[in-house]
Design goal:
single chain; 171 residues; alpha+beta; Jelly Rolls; six-stranded antiparallel sheet; three-stranded antiparallel sheet; 9 strands; 29% strand
């Protein structure tokens, strides 16, 4: 995959959501061809082949939340949505079938609105399991410690051992 098709977003702590100042969000446009058979199965296969497991199919919650114990990949299998990353003052991006978002631990995300057929395939790096955090008082500083201790994956969920994650995610 060409790095020209990958963009990065850097988000800092907004006071409510820690986000992840050390690791950028990766946005892969057209990572797969969604018109090729079953795009959800293709995303599951792609993630699994690149060492990201625990795959699920659903949407993105309509409220801000984040995971402090795992990084997360979100592949858009069907439909479209506007997704806010980073909390109320974060960035808003439009996603379409074939797009993939890689969210480092701590990154708040929320569905601002989606088509009725919106379907996401999510997964996590091998050996990581997610928790749920909502920006409530009392989550931090434990969540901050978890984020700092969450290991960087050995592989990029889209490109494997030589992908953009390997280049951009360094501590």
């Amino acid at each position: 995959m060409s790095l020209r098709r990958v963009s990065i977003e850097r988000l800092g702590d907004d006071g409510t959501f820690p986000n992840n100042e050390a690791l950028p969000i990766l946005v892969y446009r057209h990572a797969i061809d969604p018109s090729d058979g079953d795009p959800a199965a293709a995303l599951e296969r792609l993630f699994r082949e690149n060492g990201w497991g625990g795959a699920w199919r659903n949407g993105i919650y309509s409220y801000h939340h984040y995971h402090s114990t795992a990084h997360e990949v979100l592949g858009i299998a069907r439909g479209a949505a506007r997704v806010q990353l980073g909390g109320e003052s974060g960035v808003v991006i439009d996603v379409a079938p074939g797009d993939v978002l890689v969210l480092p631990a701590g990154t708040a995300h929320k569905n601002l609105g989606s088509s009725s057929d919106f379907l996401v395939v999510g997964a996590y790096p091998e050996g990581q399991s997610y928790d749920m955090n909502f920006g409530h008082s009392g989550e931090r500083p434990a969540a901050d410690r978890n984020i700092e201790q969450t290991p960087i994956p050995r592989t990029d969920p889209v490109c494997g051992r030589e992908g953009p994650l390997i280049e951009f995610w360094k501590r």
